[in-house]
Amino acid sequence: MMGQFIKFGLCTKIICPEKEKNKIEKYYKKFDEFITDFEKQTNINTKIFNFNEEDSGYIFTLKDELLTPDNLNNFLKDFFYDIYDEKHLKIYCDDIYDDIKTKNSVHDLIAFAEEKPHQNFQLSYSRSAVTVPFGEHIYMEYEYIVLFLNGKAYMECYGEFFSYIEKLLRVRHAHPQIGAMKIFLD
Predict the structure, then answer these.
(1) Which pTM was predicted?
(2) How far is CA 109 from CA 44, 52, 53, 103, 125, in A?
(3) pLDDT confidence of 1, banded at 50, 70, 90?
């Protein structure tokens, strides 16, 4: 078994495809009820996302002001401080901060992350399920910037462990971006 990497990711976009959107309409009287279940199960704060309903599904996009160079770097400096010692902050993070400062738009930032320029700053994609009434699942698609990538995981039951870590992150960090942080096994 090859295993998968544990990744801490800043979600930039969350998509509920049309097929899954239809399940929401089937199992929930009100969309807000689904949002409550989604937030409880994923630890994602949807209030820091812009929401669009399209024919192809629901799309949540992280608010642009959270991805401006100053705001993002302030968040990353605080976040990385808990992960790395001073020596490794310089090795793994200083170039990231400098590169982010050169980006003029969220589009430029996402395109830069898509190039996978740094181990701890690269765009990735994943899917995960939200359990809804009657034991059904709605599969959400995530676009996220990997901020921490470490080792391979061989665990089968990791959901509660990741939820615990996500909750700890939210308690520790006051930056609004923390509401978009999710841990992935990918």
Answers:
(1) 0.84
(2) 21, 21, 24, 6, 16
(3) very low
